[in-house]
Amino acid sequence: MGFINLLVCLTLFITPLHSKAKNMAIKGEYVVKVTENLAVSSNVNYFFQKVFEKNGKLLGQKALSTKGLFLIKTSEDISLKKAIGNNPEILLIEPNFIYRNHDEIVSDFFDFEPIDEKFKYQWSYNNTQQTLNQKYEMTRGADMKILEAWNEEPRSIDAAKDVVVAVIDTGINKKHEDLKDNLWENPGEHGAWQPRNQDDVDRAPGCWDKSCNKLDDDGNGHVDDLHGWNYVKFSTDNNGDADFDDDQGHGSHCAGVIGAAHNEKGISGINNKVQLMALKFLSSNGEGTLAGAIEAINYAVEKKADVINASWGGNQYSRLLHEAIMEAGRSGVIFVAAAGNSSLNNDYFASYPANLKMVPGLVSVAATEFNNQRAYFSNFGKRSVHLSAPGHVIMSTVLGKRGYNYLSGTSMA
């Protein structure tokens, strides 16, 4: 089964064509790529002030983790064509695009079968024509054949215990009974620590571990990032914080499908043991920025994630995002993207990042339903979609210590 078992939780992200128009980018914010010489120059601040003073006031700037990339905030919108044309030091400039998630809430005998409480509702693992929250036309056996796989290789449910899956989404519910034991731990921010002086005591009273000492122990620019990072508020004057807890539910639902523990509670994840890295960049309303996405991807690559689960997207192409995902692929990371949720043919109506070309390790996934046919909402494409998996009325973890619900979409596939 290998990594394919991990590639199960993808996004519903394309706004339907008939929906109300939404902003495509953060007003007055841009991601800028400059020459290497300028990036390391002490004059870079002056350069940005000079370039953007003709387009209103430069309100702030922040270097991103990719060398030569900066997030710029201005008081007025600017002409991208003029900014590049008049300044050869600027190689590329793009609006700080907004990406969105989108999901809908839908209120045979084996030697080994999980005994988790809600396993019987997980038709995608074992379709017995069971009754869910309402009656659906089920086709017996139209499932992932996961029980066959688990029984053929009895230890396969624990085979991913050393695999790190970066869930780039709305966060992960850190207190959920099915998720808390499978959270990834950053080795550089974990382990015994002793206060060295009164400043240490005052800064982190009662702390005897690196995870709470309010120091950047591993030197990556993130303080106490034990399980991941939160980029929701990432901006020119805010680096984000370590609070990755989910306040929307989508990321936790994805995480549960990937790796809910087989602990006789709730549901069963495809992997009983796996390391879930929580990288939050989508807010409670399901929106995140280009800059936040790039930073989250770079974090996952730096911390040696094996798989990135990208639960977001949109129909705007970004070369800078493309370059970040290309770098992840070159580093050996499998990047999983949803085909989309608009019933469109991606061969003709591109959606990103699923439609990015020439990216090593990128997998685009569509959703199927109870009869092994394409789910009515799922995008498709002979040239642009690589595989499909069950994604309609999927039971998984959400908010609350014992929260579970059905969601549908390519996120769940």
Task: Write up this protein.
The protein has 413 residues and is α/β, with parallel strands linked by helices. The protein has helices at residues 36-39, 44-52, 80-85, 146-152, 198-203, 250-259, 290-302, 319-330, and strands at 25-34, 58-63, 69-74, 90-100, 104-105, 164-169, 228-230, 275-280, 287-289, 307-310, 334-338, 362-368, 387-390, 394-397, 404-408. The longest helix is centred in the last third of the chain and has 13 residues, at 290-302. The protein is globular and about 70 Å long.
Specify the helix fraction band. Answer: 10-25%
Largest sheet, in brief, is: 7 strands, parallel
Q: Say how many strands there are.
A: 15
Summed over residues and divided by their number, the pLDDT gives a mean of 89
Strand order of the largest sheet: 7-8-6-10-11-12-13
Note the beta-strand portion. Answer: 15-25%
Question: DSSP helix count?
Answer: 8
Identify low-pLDDT runs: 1-20
- H-E order: EHHEEHEEHEHEHEEHEHEEEEE
What oligomeric state do the depicted chains represent? single chain
Alpha-beta content class: alpha/beta
C-alpha termini separation = 16 Å
Gross morphology: globular
Please compute the radius of gyration using only Cα atoms: 22 Å
